[in-house]
Amino acid sequence: MFSNLIPTPEPMKAQSRVQDLKSRLDWGEPALTIIDTRSREAFNASHIQGAISLPMDVLVSRIGETIEPARDIYVYGETDEETAQAAAKLREAGYPNVAELTGGLAAWKAVGYPVEAISAIIA
After folding, report:
1. Where is the chain membrane-spanning (predicted)?
2. Which CATH architecture has domain 12-112?
């Protein structure tokens, strides 16, 4: 009876703004994965907090190792065009719940959302 009164995050869209993703993360919804398809070097320099690196050349071959097809996936690349290509590849590989993160990392940073970097260890 009161289920209509409980706020819920907006459903995932094929093209999502960074604010849509941040809203889901703030909601505490763990059933999503953020994939960065840029090069490993670009990922290590800076990426959306919590994202995993699956560069375009290994995206489809490696995604099945860790991510179930029913999972919600937010993907971003170097450009919106690259992001769209990655999303299309994922959908063709059997992942129906894919959102293209419009503006990618640049849009994420522009609004001041958290990013991570991986430091190189020099031996």
Report:
1. none
2. 3-Layer(aba) Sandwich (3.40)
Looking at the chain, which runs of residues are DSSP E strands? 15-16, 32-36, 47-48, 52-53, 72-76, 98-101, 115-116
E-only strand ranges, 24-104: 32-36, 47-48, 52-53, 72-76, 98-101
Q: Is 90 helix (H, G, I), strand (E, B) or coil?
A: helix
Q: Are 105 and 36 in contact (CB under 8 A)?
A: yes
* Rounded Cα gap, residues 54 and 34, in angstroms: 10
Task: Judge whether residue 4 has pLDDT over 60.
Answer: no
pLDDT in tens, 15-31: 888 999 998 888 876 68
> Does residue 72 contact residue 35 with C-beta atoms inside 8 Å?
no
Whether 71 and 33 have beta carbons less than 8 Å apart is answered as yes
